[in-house]
Amino acid sequence: MQAFSEILSAPGESPSSKASFSRLIKERAQAEGFDQVGIVGAAPLDSEADRLNEWLARGYHAEMQWMARDSQKRTNPLKIFPLARSVVVVALNYYTPHKHQDNPTTGKVSRYAWGDDYHEVINRKLRALLFWIKEQRPEAEGKVCVDIQPVMDKAWAVRAGLGWLGKHTNMITTRYGSWVFIGELLLNLDLEYNTEEVEDHCGSCSLCIDSCPTQAITEPYVVDSNRCISYGTIELRAENLPEPITENLSGWFYGCDICQDVCPWNRFEQVTQEEDSFSPREGNINAKLTDIVDLSAEAYAERFRHSPMKRAKLSGLKRNARALLDDRQT
What we know:
By secondary structure, the protein is α+β, with helices and mostly antiparallel strands. It contains 15 helices and eleven strands.
């Protein structure tokens, strides 16, 4: 058996040492609770950059001006962490077996937002992983990225062999469907890299495209945020939702899961091992609309503490609730 001191050798290590340490990193990531992990080199995402720039040129980022402002950072990890040599990409299954209610006094909440804020959960786990790596390699330095940083999470997950990009632009895994959160750890270490991407298994299926009530998926693998219910109810800061969205809310109060709910690969979902974090909070599967409209700033802060639903802010949540109430009164 190879000695642990050989596995954790200094710079100039042999490929076998890289492979051994890379394997240990993956095992440790799984021990921290991640369901999938892959490692790739920290090279610029050139082909993805071309697609991103075309998407931005079409104005499909809507009012998310930071997408255009940080476009170079999004496709080049060295712009975020100049010492980066490797990208450790992780996925965390968040599926719980609860269902939305058919109740006209409530609005549906996207499954990802039922429990605790995934940014905090993944950040905590990745920081624990980085701490462990530094214990083994004192020269190690790293940068934790969880959605907030300008990183193309789904592109890195595809490169790392965790899944493929579905026609709805969510990353799909063969084991968990698309019910996964993604995060990255940029490291200054040379490691063994994944060289194979998962084959695109969408085939001729167009259920996600056909089922979108606003036709936000303008073509396979392209989403126009201007028409997307998730964008409108979460990211948009306007006083009113645009007509293509208000006329097709389909009961959604925060986010939208239609394109994921119809995906055949999501029949293979498995219950998350992080139920303590991702099990639904009270009122987070279906939110009572009148409660939201009457919510005070203090009650909002208390109810949505450590919840991803803070993203829409109190004004956005009230706007969404009013839009659904108005729709049901007409």
